[in-house]
Design brief:
The complex is a heterodimer of chains A (306) and B (290). Chain A has 306 residues and is an all-alpha fold. Chain A has 15 helices and two strands. Chain A has a two-stranded antiparallel sheet with strand order 1-2. The chains are: A mainly alpha (306), B mainly alpha (290).
Chain lengths: 306, 290
C-alpha cells in the first residue's frame, strides 16, 4: 500500500507536519513536543541500526552527552538556547567521534555491549566524579533567555521549532540515504567484506555515519533539556536504552518514516497506555517478544506489504 | 620498631581487599558460567539470565521472611524453582533464536527480563529489600577481619570450578557440550541431538545464576533491577574471558573481582566503571566477531 506513496518524500513530510500539529493541538502541546524530540532521537538511532545494521545498546550516552553539553553551556557560558543546541550537537558528535574508532570496528554483540559499557561509564562520570559541575543525582535546572521571536518558554514556539527540526532531520537523512553514500551504507550492511574488496575504506564511512548518528542524538538531548528546563542523570541512564530500540523496531527499522511512526507509537504507549495498564513494562515486554518473533518489519513494513 | 606498625597494617588491609576481591570474583564466576555457555554455544546474548539471578535472590527473601525458613532451605528452594523457569525460557524463547540474527536474540531475551522484573515488582514491590548476613560470624586474625560468609563463598566458587571441570572432562554430557562449543556441525553429523544437551546446559547455567543471586543477596540489597546491573558486569567477564571458554571465564571473573575490590579501596564509586574500562581495553586489542 505504501510502496507508491513512499517515493513522494515531500508529501510524507507534509503528512508528518500536519499530523503532529493536529495531534499537538488536540492534546497537550508540551507532551507532543516531547514526542517530536523523541522521534528525532529514534531517527538518529535508526540511522545506525536500520541503515548500517549496528544495534547500539547504549545510545542514551549520546543523548546524555547532548543534554549535558546544552545544560552546561547554558549554566556556565550563557543562557542562549541556540548556543545550547549548538553545544548539544557538538557534545554528541564529540563523544561519537572519540569513541567511534573503537566502536565501529566491532559489530553484533560486541558493538551493542561496548556501547552499553561506555554508557555505564558515562552515567557514572556524570553521577560521581563530575557531580561538582553536573549536579550529580539532582542535575541542574536551567533558565533560557529569549530574544525577539525566539522565545523557548513560549510553548507554541518550542513546539513548532521542534517540529521544524524534526522535519529538517528527516529530510537530511532522506537525502543522505538516497545519495550514493546511502547506497554504500546499505552495501556495507549487507556485506562489508565485499565492499572492502571493491577498494573502499569502510572504516571511515562507518565512523562518519556513527558521528552523524550521535550528533542527531545530541541534538535530541539538547532539545529535551530546553523542553524540560533541567538536565539530570535520567537523560543518560543506561536502563532506558530499550526505549529507543523498541521504538525503532515497532515502527520498522531502516525506514525514516517508520522511525517517526515508531517514536510516536512508543511515546503514545508509554504516556497514554500507562494510565490504563499499570503493568505496562510487562506489556512492553510482551509486545517486544511478538515483534522479535512474528512482526519483524514493524508497522511501516507491515503497511508496505498489504 | 613502633612506627613500622602502620605499614604492616596497610599490608594487612591490602590482603583484606584481595579477599573481598576474591569474594566478588567468585560470585561473578558463578553467575557468568551460564552466560558464557549460551554465548559460546548458541551465540545468544542472554539478558534473561539476569531475571533468573534476581528471582533466586527474591525467592530466598520469601523463604526467609514469609516462610521463616533457614538460609540453606531458601537456597535449595531458589535453585529448584530456577529449573522449570529456565526450562520454559529455553523452550519458548531461546530455542526459537538459534541461527537468528543477534539483534533479535538481544531484544527477545531483554523482553523476557522486562516481563520478569515487572512480575517481581508486582509481587514484592519496587522498593529495595535487605537480607542480613546468615552467619553473622566475623573471623579475626590480627588486623584482618573477614566475615565467615565471604570465605564460604570463595570456597563454594572453587568447588563449583573444580566440579564443572570434572563435569566437562568426565561425563558424556559435558564432553558432548565441549565438542559442540568447538564444532556444532560435526557433533550433529554424529547423530547427536545437540539441542537437548544445550537445553540441559542452559538449565545448569541458570541454576548457577540463581545460586549466584542467593549468594550475593546478603552482601548487597535486593532490588528488582539488580539483575540488569550484575548482568552487564558478567558480560564484561564473559567478553574478557572469551566466550564459551570456561577457564578463561574463571580467570576473568577473578581478575575483574580483584580490579573492582582494589579500585573500590582507593575510590569506591569507580569500582564498576573500572571493569568496563578493562573490558573496553580488552575488546580494542582482541575484538570478537559474533
Amino acid at each position: 500500500m505504501l510502496k507508491k506513496i513512499e517515493k513522494h518524500d515531500a508529501f510524507l513530510l507534509a503528512v508528518i507536519a500536519v499530523g503532529f500539529v493536529v495531534f499537538g493541538f488536540s492534546t497537550t502541546l508540551t507532551k507532543i513536543t516531547d514526542f517530536i524530540i523523541f522521534c528525532i532521537f529514534v531517527l538518529g538511532f535508526d540511522l545506525l541500526y536500520g541503515h548500517m545494521g549496528r544495534l547500539s545498546f547504549g545510545h542514551m550516552l549520546y543523548l546524555g552527552a547532548g543534554a549535558y553539553g546544552a545544560g552546561l553551556s547554558a549554566k556556565f557560558l550563557s543562557p542562549d538556547p541556540l548556543l545550547a543546541i549548538f553545544f548539544g550537537i557538538l557534545g554528541g558528535a564529540l563523544v561519537g567521534a572519540l569513541l567511534g574508532p573503537i566502536l565501529v570496528k566491532t559489530s553484533g554483540a560486541c558493538f551493542a555491549l561496548l556501547n552499553l559499557a561506555f554508557n555505564q561509564v558515562g552515567h557514572f562520570l556524570v553521577l560521581v566524579p563530575l557531580a561538582g559541575i553536573t549536579g550529580g543525582e539532582d542535575g541542574i535546572s536551567l533558565n533560557f533567555s529569549s530574544y525577539g521571536l525566539i522565545n523557548f518558554s513560549n510553548l507554541k514556539f518550542l513546539f513548532f521549532f521542534s517540529l521544524a527540526v524534526l522535519l529538517l532531520v528527516t529530510f537530511l537523512i532522506l537525502k543522505f540515504v538516497h545519495s550514493s553514500y546511502g547506497i554504500f551504507l546499505k552495501a556495507t550492511k549487507e556485506n562489508e567484506l565485499r565492499v572492502q574488496f571493491l577498494g573502499y575504506n569502510t572504516f571511515r564511512f562507518k565512523w562518519l555515519t556513527f558521528v552523524f548518528s550521535t550528533a542527531i542524538s545530541g541534538l535530541a538531548g539538547a532539545l529535551t533539556v530546553i523542553n524540560y528546563g533541567y538536565a539530570n542523570p535520567s537523560f543518560i541512564d543506561p536502563t532506558r536504552n530499550v526505549e529507543v530500540i523498541f521504538a525503532a523496531l515497532i515502527g520498522g527499522a531502516g525506514n525514516v518514516f517508520g522511525a517517526v511512526l515508531g517514536g510516536t507509537a512508543f511515546m503514545s504507549i508509554s504516556n497514554y497506555l500507562a494510565r490504563y495498564i499499570i503493568r505496562w513494562e510487562m506489556f512492553l515486554g510482551l509486545v517486544l517478544l511478538i515483534i522479535a518473533f512474528r512482526f519483524r518489519k514493524g508497522i511501516w513494513g507491515y503497511l508496505r506489504e498489504i | 620498631m613502633p612506627y613500622r606498625a602502620p605499614e604492616y597494617f596497610q599490608d594487612l588491609i591490602m590482603l583484606q581487599t584481595i579477599l573481598h576481591g576474591l569474594t566478588i570474583g567468585g560470585i561473578l564466576y558463578i553467575i557468568s558460567i551460564g552466560l558464557s555457555l549460551t554465548f559460546g554455544a548458541m551465540g545468544i546474548v542472554n539478558f534473561a539470565h539476569g531475571l533468573i539471578y534476581t528471582l533466586g535472590a527474591y525467592i530466598l527473601f520469601a523463604v526467609l521472611t514469609n516462610l521463616g525458613g533457614s538460609f540453606i532451605l531458601g537456597t535449595i528452594i531458589a535453585v529448584i524453582i530456577a529449573i522449570p523457569v529456565s526450562y520454559l525460557i529455553e523452550r519458548y524463547v531461546i530455542r526459537r533464536l538459534y541461527g537468528e540474527s543477534l539483534d533479535y536474540a538481544i531484544i527477545a531475551t531483554y523482553a523476557v527480563l522486562l516481563i520478569g522484573v515487572d512480575a517481581i515488582k508486582w509481587i514484592w514491590g519496587p522498593r529495595p529489600l535487605p537480607i542480613s548476613d546468615p552467619l553473622g560470624i566475623t573471623l579475626k586474625f590480627f588486623f584482618l577481619e573477614m566475615p565467615l560468609y565471604r570465605l564460604i563463598i570463595i570456597g563454594l566458587s572453587l568447588l563449583i570450578f573444580f566440579g564443572l571441570s570434572l563435569f566437562f572432562k568426565k561425563t558424556i554430557i559435558g564432553k558432548i557440550v565441549v565438542a559442540g562449543l568447538q564444532d556444532q556441525e560435526a557433533v550433529r553429523s554424529l547423530g547427536i541431538n545437540l539441542n537437548k544437551y544445550l537445553a540441559i546446559i542452559f538449565v545448569l547455567g541458570s541454576v548457577l545464576g540463581a545460586l549466584g543471586g542467593v549468594l550475593y543477596a546478603p552482601i548487597s540489597t535486593l532490588h528488582p533491577y539488580m539483575g540488569f546491573h550484575i548482568l552487564i558486569l558478567c558480560f564484561a567477564v564473559v567478553i574478557v574471558g572469551g566466550m564459551g571458554n570456561l577457564q578463561g571465564t574463571a580467570l576473568a571473573a577473578l581478575g575483574l573481582g580483584l580490579v573492582m575490590a582494589i579500585t573500590g579501596r582507593y575510590y569506591g564509586p569507580a569500582a564498576e566503571a573500572m571493569v568496563y574500562v578493562v573490558m573496553a581495553v580488552v575488546l580494542i586489542f582482541r575484538p570478537i566477531d559474533v
